Amino acid sequence: MGDFYQNGIITTLHNLSQRPLEELERELLAFSRTRPMALILPCLYSELEGEAMPNILRHLKQVPYLSEIIIGLDRATEEQYRAALEFFSALPQPHRVLWNDGPRLRAIDRSLKGEELSPQQPGKGRNVWFCMGYTLAAGRAESIAMHDCDILTYDRELLARLIYPVANPNFNYEFCKGFYARVAEHKINGRVSRLLVTPLLRALKKVFGNLDYLEYLDSYRYPLAGEFSFRRDVMNDIRIPSDWGLEIGVLSEMTRNYSNNRLCQVDIADVYDHKHQDLSLDSDEAGLSKMSIDITKAIFRKLATNGIVFNQETFRTIKATYFRIALDFVETYRNDAEINGLKLDIHLEEQAVELFAGNIVKAGTHFLDNPMEAPFISSWNRVRSAFPGVQQQLIAAVDADMAEFGRR
Known about the structure:
two-stranded antiparallel ribbon, 408 residues, Nucleotide-diphossugar_trans, Glycosyl transferase, transferase, transferase activity, 10 strands, 12% strand
């Protein structure tokens, strides 16, 4: 049961009454007559073979209000793409599967790369970007939700609560971020959000003062959640990172493009668990180590666009300030876990803090050493300007793939 407290500068929509799912879905079905709704699912082929995605599919089959589901499929061979089409054929809603590794979409990708308009590296950000381009081209949905495909505790109520704020015509929100308690199997999870993002934002406030951007990010209860919803026009101008900075990048773009009263966050689940990444103490190119570097770089980049000047000494100060605040948070979470009868390994918590502290300096060094780096994917407005017919090509390519490799 949530509280009603409004913290920060972003509206928080709580779960105060455990409203019946059937009521929510009846309202959403009524909204869908004037605001058609779609769902974007960025996934890896391997997730279709895991525990989470088959359960997600079972729940989505019961959702009555979606006009379309757009699936972005990464790391799939031709045989796996055929299997994916068979897997998703169980959906009663109209759906499209984008075979991102297929020759047709790769050809479009090469054309865009020739003008430096396409993502330079594979990953979730690239997958999401192409799904957004397809959704814009199709033009069938007014309200769109997106969530991850590795949610082990998925229930369709999560989707209903996530899309409701941008689907309800009585609300004026352009964007909604989902949040939840990262508690599962008697453990407190969410180390990167708890032990990196929140203490880093508090440290940055100490170093630079209460900047509007820092106050804005700190208002989100779970800024790294992969679940959000938005109105269609949001996708035209948004420029997102292609790395692990995706979620922070999306939040940064929203505060650049819209006033805060058009943004909100909503409680979408009491219990949430998904695939966990390794800490990767020995590699900056994998697991939570790479994630922490990418996220920290995304925050530094945004602060730089707001006029903050960085140097190597600044990053050392940020690291020292962060380290003390983060260790205090470890004690806070230990107490929170104990009163709730949950498990929390203090050694692993402090090990994560030590890794993240070092990675703050690494992220800062990378930021200073690469001043010409272009970390954001171009907006679809710019892509359409350079290649006016690209979205029609995207529609044709997806349709041709599904017709050629689908069930015969």
